[in-house]
Amino acid sequence: MATKTARSRTQSPAYRCGECGWTTAKWVGRCGECQAWGTVEETAAAGVARTTAATTVARPALRIADVDATTASYQPTEVGELDRVLGGGLVPGAVILVAGEPGVGKSTLLLDVAARVARLGRTVLYVTGEESSAQVKLRAERIGALADTLYLTAESDLSQALGQVEKVDPALLIVDSVQTLSSPDVDGSAGGVTQVKEVAASLINAAKTRGMTTLLVGHVTKDGSIAGPRLLEHLVDVVCQFEGERHSRLRLMRAVKNRYGPTDEVGCFDLTDTGIEGLADPSGLFVSRTKEPVSGTCITVTLEGRRPLLAEVQALLAESANAQPRRATSGLDGSRVSMLLAVLQQRASLQLHKDDSYVATVGGVKLSEPATDLSVALAIASAKTNQALPSRMIAFGEVGLAGEVRPVPGISRRIQEAERLGFTHAVVPESPNGPGRIPAGFTVKQVSTLTEALELLF
User: Fold this and answer.
1) Do 194 and 245 belong together in one domain?
2) Which of 116, 301, 317, 405 has the most C-beta neighbours closer than 10 Å?
3) Is position 210 within any domain?
4) pLDDT single digits (tens) 410-449
5) Is 105 assigned to a binding site?
6) What positions does the domain RecA family profile occupy (predicted)?
C-alpha cells in the first residue's frame, strides 16, 4: 500500500512558469520567482528516474597533448572593437549570445559583421525571425552590408532554419533572434522556457558538429537581464551585452562570459544613420572643446575594462530659492554626488547647503567608477570658488567620508593615456608603490586628502 501511495505522489501533476521555469506542486496565479501573472501552467508529471546504458564509443578519448588546438584558433571579423571584446575574433564552433535593449543596434552590428566576414571569402547565413527578408536587405543597402556569399532567410520554424543550414553549409550563422524561433516538436509558445531550451540546444549541437560559429541575438527584460531561462547563458560559450543610451550615438559592448578570452574588455561603437563603426579612440566624445578654461569643469580618466577613457565632469552651483536645495545629476550616481557634497562641506569648509547643485558628464557617458570622485569634488569646488582648473590637467582618485583620497588601480595606465592625448599635469592619490612610469615632461602631484588637493589647486 505504501508503494502505491509513493508512486501516486511521484506521478502527481506539476506546474511550471512559462517565463522563468519556476515549478510548484499546485497551481498559482502568480509566479513565485519572476512575479509574472498567468504564466504558470500544468506540465506532464515526472516519471520514475531511469538510467542510460553505455553504448559503443564512436570517437575514443585522446590525450590532451594530442588534441589539435588549431581548430579553435581565432578568425578576425575585420571589426576591430568586436575582435577586442571576443579576445581576437570568432572561434569555429563557438556560440555567442549578443543581448541588448530594443533599438540599441544589435541587428545593425551583426549585419555589418556578416557582410565583412562574407567579403573574406566565407559563407554566412543570416536567419531573421523578426523581420522580412526585404526589410533586412533595405538595412543592408543603407549601411553597405551587401556581399556575394551572404545568404538571407526569414524563418521562425526551427526545423526550417536547420534545413537552411544543411543546404547553405555556412561558416558563420547569425540568428536574429533566438526567442523568435520555435520547434513544432515541443509544447509552448516561441520565447518560452521550453522552446528557448530546445532551440538553443539544437543550434549549439549544429554549431559544434559542423565547426560553425553561431551568433545569437537575445532579448532583455525591463531590468536589463537576458530574457528566458538562465540556462541559456550557461549553454553558450560567450555572452556579450550591447548597451547604450537612445539619445547618444555611443554604444558599448562588454563580454559578461567568455570561454575563449578575457571578460574585462570593452568595445566602443558609433551608431549613425549610415551604419555602425568601431571607435578605437572614443575619448574625444566625452571632452568638450573650449578656447578658454571654464570654472566648474574637470577632466578625469576612467577604466572601462582594461581601456582608459577620458571624460569631463561639469558642475554648476546656483543659490537656491527653496528651503531644500535641488541636487541634479546626469551620468553620475546621485547618491555618491550627494556624499561628495557633504564631504566638501564638512571636511573642506565649503558652504554648499544653500546652493542648488547640477553635476553632469559630457557626451552622455556614465561614470560609475569610484576613481572619478576626486574629479567630481574638484569640479564642484571650482564652481563654488569660480576659479577654473588648469586646462591640461586631469584628476582621479576615490574620496572617503573622512576626506581621504584612496589609491585606485591602473594609475600608470591612466597617466599614459592622458599624456597621449596632450595633457601635461595630473593630481592622483598617494600609492605605496608610487604612480609608476611617468612620461617625460608630465607632472604628477600626489595627494592624500581632499583638503590637500584643494590647497594645491586653489
Assistant:
1) yes
2) 301
3) yes
4) 999 999 999 998 999 999 999 888 788 888 999 999 999 9
5) yes
6) 71-220
Residue 102 assigned as binding residue: yes
- pLDDT, tens digit, 9 for 90 and up, residues 347-396: 999 999 899 999 999 887 889 999 999 999 999 999 999 999 998 999 99
A 10 A CB-CB count for 415 gives 24
**Amino acid (one-letter) located at 170:** P
Number of domains in the chain: 3
Q: Cα(93)–Cα(201) distance, rounded to whole angstroms?
A: 13
For the domain that residue 117 is a member of, what is the CATH number? Answer: 3.40.50.300
Nearest to 216 by CA among 110, 301, 97: 97
Q: Does 106 show up as a binding residue in the annotation? A: yes
If asked whether residues 241 and 96 sit together in one domain, one would say: yes
The DSSP string of 154-200 is E--BHHHHHHHHHHH--SEEEEE-TTT-B-TTS-S-TTSHHHHHHHH
Domain end marker among 280, 315, 344: 280
The number of residues in the chain equals 458
Angle, alpha carbons 136-140-143 (nearest 5°): 140
> Is 100 assigned a ligand-binding role in the annotation?
yes
Asked, for residue 398, whether it belongs to a domain, the answer is yes
Q: Say whether 407 counts as a known binding-site residue.
A: no
107 assigned ligand-binding residue:
yes
